[in-house]
């Protein structure tokens, strides 16, 4: 992913020792300037030596200083705007279906460069530690919460979806420090959901937002898994905006299954036949 290097440096900055931390701060504060620096100039700016700079870029799997600058530059290339094909009354069945698929694919491809794997990894840690997991969603986000409940339940987690804003506001202040509350929201601006998150966090529950970066919900929760709201995704096809939320659920479930030692973590064990009650030919 294009911005992996900057994200990796930001994630490890607090773990770095003095000179390496100074290099990290210079890179994160002004990456454009670093791209134009020679290694000697970066060494002087960080008040350290060339060998320290070498150890720094090798820590992030860069072959040499030039490779380090190239990868840094790639992370600064502006993302192309979300390529959305409007659906109109003149679209026939074939055109309409093709546009839905195309718009969905473009949303997924854009998200591939934006997904924060570090946040997902941390969320899995918290889910595994939790005594109980509560899943909050309103409107169409309820479907995402239900999907998460179904999959997490099959991995053995004690989880529960909480629908209806009044019920959410009643349950949120009862949560405790050994519980996790996950909030699903496309906009991150729904007042009752933000209020419920604030209540849950104030009582010690660990709160996770799966929502638009920079929203009110992200400011309220302990951890955010950002799902950007790309241009025009709610004009005619709001479901394309939810596809990436479903992908985040799959990422969480797969990583959780892997941690639990499942041989095929991206495949859930089939439910018992008495639950699904299928016909057997």
TrEMBL record:
<dbReference type="GO" id="GO:0003677">
    <property type="term" value="F:DNA binding"/>
</dbReference>
<feature type="domain" description="SIS">
    <location>
        <begin position="123"/>
        <end position="262"/>
    </location>
</feature>
<keyword id="KW-0804">Transcription</keyword>
<dbReference type="InterPro" id="IPR035472">
    <property type="entry name" value="RpiR-like_SIS"/>
</dbReference>
<keyword id="KW-0324">Glycolysis</keyword>
<dbReference type="InterPro" id="IPR001347">
    <property type="entry name" value="SIS_dom"/>
</dbReference>
<dbReference type="InterPro" id="IPR000281">
    <property type="entry name" value="HTH_RpiR"/>
</dbReference>
<protein>
    <submittedName>
        <fullName>Transcriptional regulator, RpiR family</fullName>
    </submittedName>
</protein>
<dbReference type="InterPro" id="IPR047640">
    <property type="entry name" value="RpiR-like"/>
</dbReference>
<dbReference type="GO" id="GO:0003700">
    <property type="term" value="F:DNA-binding transcription factor activity"/>
</dbReference>
<keyword id="KW-0805">Transcription regulation</keyword>
<keyword id="KW-0238">DNA-binding</keyword>
<dbReference type="GO" id="GO:0006096">
    <property type="term" value="P:glycolytic process"/>
</dbReference>
<feature type="domain" description="HTH rpiR-type">
    <location>
        <begin position="3"/>
        <end position="79"/>
    </location>
</feature>
<dbReference type="Pfam" id="PF01380">
    <property type="entry name" value="SIS"/>
</dbReference>
<dbReference type="InterPro" id="IPR046348">
    <property type="entry name" value="SIS_dom_sf"/>
</dbReference>
<dbReference type="InterPro" id="IPR036388">
    <property type="entry name" value="WH-like_DNA-bd_sf"/>
</dbReference>
<dbReference type="GO" id="GO:0097367">
    <property type="term" value="F:carbohydrate derivative binding"/>
</dbReference>
<dbReference type="InterPro" id="IPR009057">
    <property type="entry name" value="Homeodomain-like_sf"/>
</dbReference>
<dbReference type="Pfam" id="PF01418">
    <property type="entry name" value="HTH_6"/>
</dbReference>
């Amino acid at each position: 992913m294009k911005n992996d290097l900057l994200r990796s440096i930001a994630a490890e900055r607090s773990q770095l020792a003095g000179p390496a931390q100074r290099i990290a701060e210079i890179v994160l504060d002004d990456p454009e300037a670093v791209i134009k620096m020679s290694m000697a100039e970066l060494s002087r700016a960080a008040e350290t030596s060339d060998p320290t700079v070498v150890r720094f870029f090798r820590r992030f799997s860069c072959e040499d200083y030039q490779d380090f600058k190239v990868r840094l530059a790639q992370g600064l290339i502006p993302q192309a705007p979300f390529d959305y094909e409007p659906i109109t009354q003149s679209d026939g069945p074939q055109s309409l279906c093709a546009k839905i698929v195309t718009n969905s694919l473009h949303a997924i491809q854009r998200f591939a460069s934006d997904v924060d794997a570090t946040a997902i990894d941390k969320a899995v840690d918290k889910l595994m530690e939790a005594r109980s997991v509560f899943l909050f969603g309103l409107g169409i986000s309820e479907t995402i919460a239900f999907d998460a409940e179904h999959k997490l339940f099959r991995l053995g987690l004690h989880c529960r979806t909480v629908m209806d804003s009044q019920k959410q506001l009643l349950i949120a202040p009862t949560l405790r420090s050994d519980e996790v509350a996950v909030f699903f929201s496309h906009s991150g601006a729904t007042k009752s959901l933000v209020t419920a998150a604030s209540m849950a966090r104030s009582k010690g529950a660990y709160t996770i937002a799966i929502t638009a970066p920079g929203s009110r919900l992200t400011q309220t929760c302990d951890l955010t898994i950002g799902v950007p709201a790309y241009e025009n995704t709610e004009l005619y096809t709001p479901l394309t905006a939810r596809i990436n939320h479903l992908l985040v659920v799959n990422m969480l479930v797969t990583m959780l299954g892997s941690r639990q030692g499942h041989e095929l973590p991206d495949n859930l064990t089939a439910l018992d036949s008495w639950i699904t009650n299928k016909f057997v030919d």
